[in-house]
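thread from #wetlab-drylab

HS: before we spend reagent money on co-crystallization trials with coenzyme A, can we at least see a predicted complex? here's what I'd submit
DV: go for it
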Amino acid sequence: MTTATFAKGLEGIIASETEMSFIDGQAGILEYVGIPIGELAAHGTFEESVYLLWNRRLPNKGELESFSAELHSYTGLPAGMSGRLLALPMQAHPMHVIRTMISALSMHDEDPNSVDLDEVRAKAMRILARAPTIVAFFDRYRRGLPLIEPRADLSFAQNFLYMLNGEVPTEAMARAFDICMITHADHGLNNSTFAARVIISTLSDIYSALTGAIGSLRGPLHGGANEGVMKMLWEIPTLNDVEPFILGKLERKEKIMGFGHRVYKSHDPRASELKTLAKQLASDTGNTDLYEKSSKIEEVMGTAVAAKGIYANVDFYSATTYHCLGLKLDLFTPMFVLARLSGWSGHILEQLADNRLYRPKAQYVGPHDAPYVPMDQR
Ligand SMILES: CC(C)(COP(=O)(O)OP(=O)(O)OC[C@H]1O[C@@H](n2cnc3c(N)ncnc32)[C@H](O)[C@@H]1OP(=O)(O)O)[C@@H](O)C(=O)NCCC(=O)NCCS
């Protein structure tokens, strides 16, 4: 009989090998293929980061150009998909919309179930390219605005903001959005990435694996926290109300959204990148109050609970950033999807390249030898 370790929530268990991202939670380090996230955010682009994650090396100029051109060439939706989207209820949450539409893309693929690595990679490219179009189309449809077709000459970040707002974004806005995409692209074996790997390990298809991952990400303990952060910032009337609001919540044992992380126990390096970005954007767009409240919350939390290893996470400042970019609250988590589709797909490819079916065990804690009681005696 083999001995097995039980860890609730699989905490501390190594369940996969990956060459994509490295995290040292105690030191607050995140690297993509060895490159610190701060370096990529400062000098790289989202397209370059996706290439890095999928190929485990940075592209040269020509490689990046052809990779980007290929990605941008797939941004249009297959015939029939727009009609499907326009038939959805307008009040649907965009997370349910994107989950449904990524799943629906499988029906426009002649061979959706292929697990051949080259074919899966090509599918990943098409899905990643089309996801921003799905979100932008749905948002304009529900706002009663005409749909704006994607432009293959724009970058991933520019194109999404263009399709959403109807104008090519300023360089600063596109750069801010690009950095959000870079910092959210991959993050070790987080819950949704694990979900994607678990699903593909049955040799199911990439559409099913990504659909499952989106379902996982939607939860408020994972990608859904940035909506909670924004609601909290709106709920706090002024800067002076921050301290009593936060301390009151902590006293009632309520969680402060955008704080704490299963892995990072000193700081979340993605949060530092986003904090700088949020400050700049808030000042450019007249939202300084949001940044100031956020900064004050961080200060209060620092005194109250930092000793427990609870710090601002990636969601905390991404909320202010997205708000300043003009995104509606319910588009915040879908932005996480747009970026993380790249990480999930990379993990799906990695899993398929060296697959072993995930099949952990449960520790049975129920009774044994229980009597089967006849119906009339229960
Ligand atoms: C992300 C999260 C689930 C990780 O939690 P975890 O590693 O499982 O840690 P736990 O939930 O067991 O919390 C450990 C302690 O810290 C406290 N804590 C953790 N996150 C907290 C938060 N955001 N606000 C207040 N207290 C928090 C817990 O209440 C617990 O305190 P206790 O020991 O007195 O009971 C958790 O921090 C959380 O719910 N954060 C808010 C949601 C969020 O921002 N999620 C996005 C993650 S990127």
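DV: The pocket of coenzyme A is lined by residues 221, 225, 255-262, 305, 308, 310, 313-315 (CB under 6 Å).
HS: ok that's useful, forwarding to the group
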